[in-house]
Give the backbone structure.
Amino acid sequence: MTVSTEQIEEAISAYSDPYYPEKDLVRRRAIKHLQVAGGRVNLKIGLGYPAEGIRQKIHDELLALVRAVPGVESVELEIVWDVAAGKNQQDMKNLSNVKNVVAVASGKGGVGKSTTAVNLALALVAEGARVGLLDADIYGPSQPIMLGIEQGRQPEQREGKYFLPMEAHGLQAMSMGFLVTEDTPMVWRGPMASGALQQLITQTLWNNLDYLIVDMPPGTGDIQLTLAQKVPVTGAVIVTTPQDIALLDAKKGIEMFQKVGIPVLGIVENMAMHICSNCGHAEHMFGKGGGEQIAKEYNAPLLASLPLDVTIRQQVDGGNPTVSAEPEGTIAMIYREMARHVGANIAKRGTNPAHNPLEIIARND
């Protein structure tokens, strides 16, 4: 019995991607290669977002669908996720090697924004992406400590004006903290801090990144506006806690990104609850449902709701963030789920259409 490409496409279209349910794989042009020769099928699927944690699950489900087509004798199936570049990424010199810039922001300090940024970056690495982390908090850089990069190490220079990013936990990283000591206060006015951020962005030689995660300082001031105006930001992740005052400030952050035309990729709620290590009782110490409420109000997905857990703080303070310290742990799995949602939400918003053309071959031999 001869198998047609149409039959294979129909079978594939029955698969529902949990991170991209709006379109089936055929309509979103996820079939990168399809060759049918008699009863033999050779197939490559490109998800558009990194998903190492569920690669085998996707593979098995698609394999079962294709094998169920009458006449199929054998199937070779490959799952890939070539992340495409955002539409405007080629517009800025020295960011041509960065496909997508993602800002991680909060309206106020103390909500776990930097912890979220570093664990999101590490989770994207764990899911199979090439990732950089830019610490944009000029006044209070924290990523050197969180990444475990000892004080005094400085980035290598090229041509007297460019920096090579530092390497840690599989990330490429750059921070003002690499250029000054921990005890050096940055007593600068806003324009000076904005200028420093521009230098970090334009003078860092990032190496072929799928995502550059930018750990923003809290608030909606000069540095945030500099990033929004000078860098082609793909989208923003907003971090909050359930506390009413944090939610008010998170709304200001969302409004700021909307005003400058940067889409909000989702909301992360930290310190959602405390679970007693002795009895297991869950208590909502800072309020309940705040992240979900703000996500509904602004029609943005709630990417994750994380517990108030002392180990998260201990691990970043020790230079070994949760995703790296306990890669198979429950909290690391939450961060990896968040990473897949962020990647998929970026893919949904449209990318360079010239990337990975469809290839379909049918033969009757």
Notes: The chain has two domains: 5-84+352-363, 89-348.
